[in-house]
Each structure stands twice: as structure tokens, then as C-alpha cells.
Amino acid sequence: MRWPRIAASLGCCALLLGVGGCASVKNLFFDEPAAATDSTSATAKPSVAVYSLDIEAPGELRTLLLTYLDLSRFQNVPESEDITPAEIDRLIAAAPAQVRALLETEGYFNPEVTVARVGGDAAPAAARERAEGAQEAASSSAPAARQSLPLLRVRVEPGPRATIHHFAFTPEGPLQQDADSGSLDAKVLIAQVRNGWRLPPGAPFRQSEWSSAKNNALAKLRADGYPAAAISTSSARVDAQANTVQLDVAADSGVLYRLGPVRINGLQRYGENSVQKLSLLTPGEPYRESQLIDFQERLQRSGLFEGASVVLDAEPTTAQAAPVNVQLRELPLQQATFGAGYSANTGPRITAEHTHRQPFGWEWIARNKLEVGPKLKSWTGELTSYPLEGLYRNLIAGSAEQLKTVNEVRNSWTARIGRTQDTTQIERLYYIEATHSRLDTASDTGTTTVNNNALTGNYHWVYRDLDNVLLPTDGYTFSAEVAGGYAVSGTGGESSGPFARVYGRYTYYRPLGGAWFATARLEGGEVLAGRQVGIPDTLLFRAGGDDSVRGYAYRSLGPKVDGALLSGRVLLTGSAEVAHPISDRFPSLWGAAFIDAGNAADHWKNLNPVLGYGLGLRWRSPVGPLRMDLAYGDDVQEVRLHLSVGIAF
To answer: Which helix H or strand E contains 458, and what residues bound it?
Structure first.
């Protein structure tokens, strides 16, 4: 049975990955006390211990005291300085109050603190004289010297941590006036601030989180129409006997800002018209920071600008028509890039790319890319217009390709014309495409040639709801493709006729807690046509490779006829993966364990999923994840290395 083997394999992979993180676990839970006191050892002058310090407190509180308590910070002093017993006594006397003050920042208002001198009472000067002795004698006498130093012991029983008993947010100024006059937007904003408060009743109190919660509430007001908002009063009233805290915050919103004209700076080659069509800002509408951020991202993705900044002019005198300042840095009119690389799917390659952002003076962007390698030779060309109304662009594109994979050679070309739209979460593409494909496949009976053409109408749709488009850890993406058209067969034994094609891909990202992250993917497709209708190979399906079923060569999975591998009319693949940072020192380097399954076939009843599983490394680089996977193909009983960059939507 395959599924028990799947579960067993995934469990083994997760176990191996967990063992690799043991060193990190040790560093996390078994820190040496000296790690928190290294700040003094980094001074330019040599230092010497004048007393020993023992702090007995729960883990996170002990770290806090080792870092900030004066007894800890002054435990080591420069050799050139002196510290008297009276000064040590002063530190001991001040320590209980200082401990209580530090613990209050963590929500402990009833701690029991004792500070006592234990053991020897040698003078610090004597200890220093011993430390300044000859080097050969110092190493042998060091344990005795340490034993003779005064031992100061700090014992802390923190008691229960205080929790939030009550929270109140009071808006003041124009925001409250608008809400009183019936403004729905004002009422919604007040409710959002209250509902989004990060220290709700029942939550433990911490000073840092109290400050963060106030900043978060203020940021919400400033982002949704009130950039001059400020905290007018705030209080945290502690009931030490009940271990509860009452929080009260009042914020003066300041005036509501409304959008005014868009002021554009930095244009030399490209006209203002395209920038204005990307703004989607309506003068007179209330200011929303998210709208300006979306505008800035659209400018950066437009293909015309190297950098873009969109900022509201928050001058109070223009609040009713606040200008939006756009600062741009243009990309060059033409750009050429040459490169060399390697793909686990198609092997080594050299590439040449050229971009012209105003060919023949037109407001279009022309891109051409040539790729040459032993397995893949291809050209792709694309003409896209500058942004039009509604964020649409017109599109003219073409491609030609020769691909050599498992015992076959495929020569194909496409030509398309259509429109595309790219919004913050949704991409749309409508186009008409002509397709040609010739497939020469080696079989047990010789070489089989399949030569087909098609004309199709297509619609592609991508939806993204992610915490980060480049490096997602939470959310999902869904892409769907629908096509319908007419195929013309150029091969004997196949006929011409209508057909339809559907394809979908869903990817889910979720944090599991404890710095563990999961990714799951489901992919499927089908070509609907009469059995004898010849469909171009580029519109059919194969499985295997980096973003399909790892452990198998690129396009190596599909139906076989007389020993020849063909493309299928149905496809189903899936993947499950868990990942975890390898160590705290390298948070962007992750280890992963995964299992893939799937195949392509000529019919659903003939679909026979195969398994691939293994371990991988992930480098979460600024341009996207770099993945290196070592996968075992269960069906072929081979190990294969897979390399890939970026996220496939």
C-alpha cells in the first residue's frame, strides 16, 4: 500500500530534520549565565571579578536581571579602577528595589526579593592583587581565588503575573465628532482600533507590549485618514493586591485628511499619463495609507521605474486636499542582460535578454529572451502596452522552442494577442493563441512523430492572499486556466476537432508554531476532446521535476504507448512539506522534509500516482527562496538533486 509508506517516509524525514536542530535547541534552552554578562568583557581595558553573583529566578526573569541589574553589570571592573566594600554594600542595599522595578516591567508587582552576602568577605583590592600576579601562578590559583571572593546571592519569587482587567479607548477631536454626527467610516475606525487592541482583558501585562499596543493603535489612526493623530493621555492603573491592571488610552485624532492632486517628480523619458493611470486615487476621498502603498507597488512593478516613493504631504493647511508626492527613478530606455546558469530540469544554459521601454517611440515595452543549452533552445518575445484604464495592458507575444527530454524532441511555437490586468491580489490574462507542436518520440518500434496545431481562446486567473509575496509563510494562492478551441491534426490516424482545457493549482502556507512552517500543494488538469482529436503537445500534461513530483526527471511522468513516453490528457499531483530554521545564527537558512505524489495519464482511470520524498535546504534570499532538494523517486528507485529559485504561482 502506498499511503502507509507515505506516512512512514514523512515521519522519518521530520525526525531527521528535528535531530539536525538539536544544537539550536541546546543553545536556546541551556544558555550559560556568562552570555548575559559579556558586555563588560568587551571593554578595551582588562577587567577582574570583585565578587561572585548567584541569581535564583525563573529563566526569562533571570536573563533580565543578569542584563540590567547593577550587581550584575558591576561584577567585573577594569583593573585600573577600584571598588570599595562600601560601594558593594550600596549595590546590595539598592538591589531589592531595582529588582522590583525590573520585574514590574514584566507584570510582576508582588515579588519576594532577598539579597544576601554568603561565604567569604575578602576585600576587592586583595582579590585584584591576586589577579595581577604572575601568569603561571594565576592559572593554578584561579579556583581558589574565585572561592575566596564574596558571594552575593539574589533570590526572587516573582509571584503571579498581573493580567489586564479592563481596557478603554477614547477617541477625541474630529474623529469623535464625525462619529457623533453619524459618520459610518468614523464609527468603523473606532471599532477597528478597539477590536485590534493587542492587550485585551485576560492577557498578561508587559511594559513592552503596553507600549507596542499604544503604538499600534496610533498607527491605525494615522493610516486611515488621520496622519496627525497623537496619544493625549494614557494610564496603566495597577491593583497589586488583585494582580490586575486597568488600561486607559485617549487619542486626539487631529483633522481628517482628504486626497488632493498627485505631484510627480523624476520623469524624463516616460509621460505622466501612465503614472496617473496607475494611481487609482480619487481627489476628495479620505486618505488611506494602504492606497498609497498599493500605488507605490504598482509603480515598482510597471517595468518603467527602478524606484518609486509615494508619500502624503501632511501639511495641516492643505488637509482638505492633501497633495500626494510621487518621487520616481526611471529605468534606462534599453537594457541588455547576459547570463549563464544551470537548471535541474534542463541542464546548463546561457541566456541573453533585451528590453526596450519605448520602441519606435511607442508607449509599449518590448522584451526578448534567448536561451541556449544542450536540452533547451528557446526564444520568447513580448510587447506590452503602458498601463491603460483599470490597470489593463494590451499584449502581443510569441515563442519558439526546441526541448529535448526523455527519449524525445519537441519543436513548438506559439503566437498570442490579448489583454492583461495585474492588481494587488489578482492577475488576469485574456488572449487568443495559435499553437504548433511537433513531437518526435523514440519507442520500441522506432521513432513516432506527432504534428498538431490549434487555435484557442484562453483565460488565466491568479489570486494571492499571502503575508509576503516573495517569501510566504501564511496564506494561499490559487491559479486557474480555462481554454477552448479547435485542433488541426497534421498526423495520420488523428483527426481535427474542438476541445477544451482546464487547469488549476492551489498552494497553502501555514505556520505551525515553534518556528515550524508547512506548505501544501494540489495541482490538476484535464483536456476534454474526442479520443481521436490530435492536441498539440504543449497543451497536454506531463509530471516530474522541481515544481511537480520531485525525485523524477523533468517531464518524465506520463502515459506510455509501445515503450514511448507521451503527454497525457489528465494530470494530478500533490505535495506536503515542513520546514524549520536550521539555527538561530542563520534564520534565513531552513531545512525541509517533503513528500510528493502524482502523475499524468490519458484517462483518469489509468492514473497511477508515484511517490517522491526527501530532504532539502531553503535559503530565503531577498529575491525569493533558493531551494535545493535531494529527493528519492520511489517508482524508479533513484535519488535526484533538484534546484529552483522563486515561487511558482
So the answer is: strand 446-466
